[in-house]
């Protein structure tokens, strides 16, 4: 699995973005090592994520990934997808957890450009709204929402 973007995939400026354009990311496997690394990074060692014996007693029946790890995966997968944008500023997420993400799940993020408009407060920048779904190997939507992203317009030739 490659951990860097395809150098042949251009990063789009706001004025190159087309509403309705969509993309599905490469796959990401949620492993025990990755869940434990996330627990270490965040300090969240809640047993449903880190203790299989405990997790078997929960409604999930097994360990599950942290919900915010799912959001982090979705954000990271977007940067490795064929539809990419010039570096900009995240304006926030609206995000829902629909189903658990279990160890061994392989997830992808499917996203599209819902709307695109120029920024009223920052000349030279545009805002895109990216409705997104994190989907497991069974085709189930495990998390969904939208990302609001500010990206630059193509610089004008001087």
TrEMBL record:
<dbReference type="Pfam" id="PF01575">
    <property type="entry name" value="MaoC_dehydratas"/>
</dbReference>
<dbReference type="InterPro" id="IPR052342">
    <property type="entry name" value="MCH/BMMD"/>
</dbReference>
<dbReference type="InterPro" id="IPR002539">
    <property type="entry name" value="MaoC-like_dom"/>
</dbReference>
<dbReference type="InterPro" id="IPR029069">
    <property type="entry name" value="HotDog_dom_sf"/>
</dbReference>
<feature type="domain" description="MaoC-like">
    <location>
        <begin position="24"/>
        <end position="119"/>
    </location>
</feature>
<protein>
    <submittedName>
        <fullName>MaoC/PaaZ C-terminal domain-containing protein</fullName>
    </submittedName>
</protein>
């Amino acid at each position: 699995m490659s951990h860097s973007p395809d150098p042949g995939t251009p990063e789009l400026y706001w004025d190159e973005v087309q509403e309705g354009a969509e993309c599905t990311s490469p796959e990401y496997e949620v492993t025990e090592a990755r869940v434990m690394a996330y627990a270490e990074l965040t300090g969240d060692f809640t047993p449903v994520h880190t203790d299989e014996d405990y997790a078997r007693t929960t409604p999930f029946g097994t360990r599950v990934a942290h919900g915010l790890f799912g959001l982090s995966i979705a954000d990271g997968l977007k940067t490795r997808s064929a539809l990419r944008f010039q570096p900009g500023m995240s304006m926030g997420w609206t995000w829902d957890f629909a189903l658990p993400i279990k160890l061994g799940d392989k997830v992808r993020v499917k996203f599209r450009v819902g709307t695109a408009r120029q920024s009223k407060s920052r000349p030279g920048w545009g805002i895109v709204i990216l409705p997104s779904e994190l989907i497991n190997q069974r085709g189930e939507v495990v998390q969904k929402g939208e990302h609001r992203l500010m990206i630059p317009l193509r610089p004008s030739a001087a």
